[in-house]
Write a structure and sequence with these properties.
single chain; alpha/beta; 10 strands; about 30% helix; binds adenosine-5'-triphosphate; ABC transporter ATP-binding protein; nucleotide-binding; ABC_transporter-like_CS; ABC_transporter-like_ATP-bd
Length: about 230
């Protein structure tokens, strides 16, 4: 059975339908990447899965339970966490506070303050620093750590490497390897196609709010994905 089943999902921004009838089934432990141009609807889809943006039609079933109309904090308690685009940290709180504030939102499990700090050793000397004073890579580590504090079963990652230096991007992916080792189910939006291919089991191409192609990374070529990216359906 799938961990997440998305059926004919729609989400709007006013009159604009940003997600138009998406079907997705994600197996437990799978690493799925959403690929598509700016404005394809990837962020809206992730926010709708997390319950931050309302669905206007369709359904979201998680572990057999219909979550479509449940609020974000209930979904977090059931094991869905989002690392949002732009990180959205509490800038006037310390790193430690940013992590601790998430603990009560989620479930208990492997991840707690100590295990998260161990997974992101670069944060150890920064725990008392304000989140706003950190570098982009350090902030991204806090954002991922904050999501892990909820012990997610499904972790949604939106553009975690956007705007970071190559070294910081490598740091983010090194720490994600520990999440992969825990077999957490992951949905990732990543602009870097090589990283997408290296990281994901399956790629879903999104164009204008719909799924136009999907396949295992082992069976897809970069050219096929790029063709869908720009809307040239082959
Ligand atoms: P990006 O990579 O730029 O984040 P995306 O694939 O994540 O793109 P979305 O951000 O979900 O796409 O945007 C989908 C569509 O919804 C776009 O046409 C975008 O302009 C529109 N949109 C997104 N957010 C809003 C908003 N807050 N208000 C109005 N329209 C929006």
């Amino acid at each position: 059975m799938s961990l997440l089943d998305v059926h004919k999902l729609e989400a709007r921004h006013g009159l604009l339908k940003a997600v138009r009838g998406i079907d997705l089934a994600i197996r437990s432990g799978e690493r799925l990447a959403l690929v598509g141009a700016n404005g394809a609807g990837k962020t809206t889809l992730l926010r709708t899965l997390a319950g931050i943006h309302p669905a206007s039609a369709g359904s979201i079933t998680f572990d057999g339970e219909d979550l479509t109309s449940l609020p974000a904090h209930v979904r977090a308690a059931k094991g869905i966490a989002l690392v949002p685009e732009g990180r959205k940290l509490f800038g006037s709180m310390t790193v430690a506070e940013n992590l601790q504030v998430a603990a009560s939102a989620g479930r208990s499990g492997h991840w707690n303050f100590e295990t998260v700090v161990d997974a992101f050793p670069q944060l150890k000397p920064k725990l008392k620093a304000l989140a706003s004073a950190l570098s982009g890579g350090q902030q991204q580590a806090v954002a991922i750590g904050r999501a892990l504090m909820t012990n997610p079963r499904l972790l949604l990652l939106d553009e975690v490497s956007l705007g970071l230096s190559p070294a910081a991007v490598q740091g983010v992916y090194d720490s994600l390897a520990q999440v992969v080792a825990m077999k957490t189910t992951l949905v990732l939006v990543e602009q870097d196609l090589q990283r997408t291919f290296d990281f994901a089991d399956r790629i879903v191409c999104v164009l204008e709010g719909t799924v136009v192609a999907s396949g295992l990374t082992s069976e897809l070529t970069r050219d096929e994905v790029m063709a869908h990216y720009f809307g040239h359906r082959s």
